[in-house]
Predict the 3D structure of the following.
Amino acid sequence: MTDVHQVDGSSRKSPLQSSRQSSRQSSGQSSDQASLQAALDFQTRILGGVSRTFALTIPSLPGALRVPVTNAYLLCRIADTIEDDAGLPVEEKRASGREFIEVLWGNRSAATFAETLAPRLAPETLAAERDLVARAEKVVEVTRSFGEVQRQALIRCVSLMSDGMHRFQQQVGLRGLDSQQRLDEYCYFVAGVVGEMLTELFCEYSGAIARRRQQLMRLAPSFGQGLQMTNILKDVRADRERGVCWLPRTAFGLSPGGQSDLIAELDEERLRAGMERLAVVAHGHLQNALSYTLLIPRRYLGIRRFCLWALGMAVPTLDNIYCNPVFESGDEVKISRLDVRRIVRRYGLMASSDVMLRKLFRRDSRRLPDSDPSVAKGLDEISRNASVRAEAGFAEYGEHDLHDSVSAN
């Protein structure tokens, strides 16, 4: 049906045509809403399958933050699944990681990406992880529903994480990492960027939190590193069985350029001393994690609890590691499910009291010596260099790797 024109030259629709167009628009909107709701339902359901910890802590967040934080975790888990998969050659991991970033930028089909990658994952890949990759289109649909600030924060995080993980996975082996600086860089790419991303989401959610953005951003990478170092120390035996070691050689008095199996090269006393030294460094980062949490205004108890529960589980684990640094299995130092329930209850109840939280932290780390929160002083430079890399579109550094770039500044 043709348009009916007014005398002034403008166009108007006939009543019947307007009615049909309105009906089509309404139908399209309903279809889009149903699709998005199905995607939201999927990410809520899959979260419990890939992370019991985040399935426990995310519901404490304000409603407006639960969806983007869940989505952020799932995006990171997809990137991590690609990099950790035992069946993908290094070249395919690199290509798949970059394709995933192109999907997030809207330059590649999420459905095609998922259909291509999921069947190539190793048979031993967890069923929940395989399902997550196979239905990545739904996760990305949720990502694309966010505002600009949230979407950009998530894409930056996943891009840096994917790029950094690949660089380190290419180099790591039983020899470990060269130095503490290299460990700091690794922790930034797998955990520090998550702290920065969460801080962006928190600041976008609340003006009161945004006013403390500078302080929070300074502490965010340290928060992430404290959690990551605790996991590295706890999982050192399990990682070794997989043929990798994330410990820095210099912490054990070994040459940074050595190629030998780090653990095999150490006697018990040197292993003990190095593990204790790293536990103290991690404790300094966890002190910064507490400072970060206390910067969140008390009225945002859900955000405080989200941070506190992660911190509360890490501190006693690190305390156990310090007291038993030559353990043969991570089961010897990890906390029990009963401990987890106690931590959730205790830190949840005390979330509004800075005084009580400081007392809880001191009590749970009472066997650890005093440590220096200034362990984070080099992380600002790592973050700045990563940001430059992100803004440059992740162009290759050429013949210099990240370590050389950081050292040169």
